[in-house]
Design goal:
Radius of gyration: 20 Å
Oligomer: single chain
Number of helices: 18
Shape: globular
Order of helices and strands: HHHEEHHHHHHHHHEHHHEHHH
Number of domains: 1
Structural class: mainly alpha
Helix content: over 70%
Distance between the termini: 30 Å
Number of strands: 4
Length: 367
């Protein structure tokens, strides 16, 4: 695990250094770009003053901070109260720490399924994704991935209570965190069927705990909005986010193909298409059910949701099981043709670092 974590940290530090260099060249401050931009601003405000802020742009366009789940701003507030760090620095500390914990969890899953070599490559690939710059920012994806990876590992090793507790944390981190609960519940249902109902109370406890974080926050927002079951989804609708089974995304893809647009949008289209292909490969490799359900739900949410098309690759960052087929293939290549594998990793690193700097410093589009 030490080698994998070291490679991951090296990749992210190099990526962050490229962002810093680009920021200084553009006359901007890298800490502010990484720690206080886009969604990070909302999380910092929630950490400092709690919920209750809305920006009204139009009767049908209202951005409310209730769209943001509470775990990350809660962690920010705790760090700011216990340390002298500023809000952006606290956000970066939380995210970088969570990214390291997530990398360890991803390695543990990869090692259990395919051995240490594949696990190490899996972690490195995760750190070199085109949108992996988000792992170095004050964003929630590292926190969600940390809870998700260790919850899924707990499922694979039969520790059901831990799986449920960690799934609760994932559900409090992000709206798509319910993918972890779905994976735990699917695995529990399969065990219940396989053992014909003869399961321990720990399985029942883990299954009961898994959805509590996500459901609890959604219901809390609903109660606050006066619509217990629909209030949170109305908040999301007013942000421009809704689930339409991909119809809005397909309309936007048509626009890209016929009219073109800025680099961020076609790149997002390509990355979502690649994720769909990788999911097919993951299913063909007969990956464990919890990983298939978890990655499948994240992919369905990202591909099927309308609004913020440029953010879809970020929504897929926690879907690390999609990288398992690539990690296995790269390990086989490294054993047969080491230089070929080295060139592939180098190309991925170059793309990741350059595109990450472009996204943060130059694109001026929501991440």
């Amino acid at each position: 695990m030490g080698t994998a974590l070291g490679l991951f940290l090296a990749a992210r530090l190099l990526g962050t250094a490229v962002v810093a260099a680009a920021a200084w060249a553009a006359g901007q401050h890298p800490v502010l770009l990484l720690g206080r931009s886009w969604d990070s601003i909302w999380y910092l405000r929630i950490a400092g003053a709690g919920y209750g802020r809305s920006l009204r742009f139009h009767p049908d366009v209202v951005h409310s901070d209730l769209a943001f789940f509470p775990l990350y701003p809660g962690l920010l507030r705790g760090v700011m109260e216990l340390t002298p760090l500023s809000g952006p620095a606290a956000g970066l500390l939380v995210s970088w720490t969570a990214a390291g914990v997530a990398a360890c969890g991803i390695w543990a899953i990869g090692a259990r399924l395919h051995g240490r070599a594949v696990a190490t490559v899996l972690v490195l690939l995760w750190g070199l994704l085109p949108h992996s710059v988000v792992l170095s920012m004050a964003y929630t994806e590292p926190v969600l991935t940390a809870f998700a990876a260790w919850s899924l590992h707990a499922v694979l090793t039969g520790r059901w209570v831990w799986a449920g507790v960690l799934a609760t944390g994932a559900g409090l981190a992000r709206p798509n965190g319910f993918a972890v609960a779905a994976a735990v519940l699917a695995a529990a249902a399969y065990e219940l069927w396989r053992r014909r109902g003869k399961v321990t109370h720990r399985l029942w406890t883990g299954a009961a705990l898994a959805p509590l974080g996500w459901a609890g926050y959604v219901l809390w927002v609903g109660r606050r909005q006066g619509d217990l079951f629909g209030g949170y989804f109305e908040v999301q609708r007013l942000w421009g986010s809704r689930y339409d089974f991909g119809l809005g995304a397909l309309r936007f893809v048509r626009h890209l193909l016929l009219e073109g647009d800025r680099l961020v949008f076609p790149m997002s289209m390509v990355l979502v298409a690649a994720a769909l292909l990788l999911y097919g490969l993951l299913a063909a490799d007969r990956a464990p059910l919890p990983l298939l359900v978890y990655a499948g739900v994240l992919l369905a949410v990202a591909a099927g949701g309308d609004g913020f098309f440029e953010c879809k690759p970020r929504f897929l960052l926690p879907a690390f099981p999609l990288l398992l087929p690539l990690a296995c293939a790269l390990v086989r290549t490294a054993r047969a043709r080491p230089w070929h594998a080295t060139l592939v990793v180098g190309a991925l690193a170059g793309l990741s670092f350059a595109y990450g700097a472009y996204l943060v410093v130059l694109a001026h589009k929501p991440l």
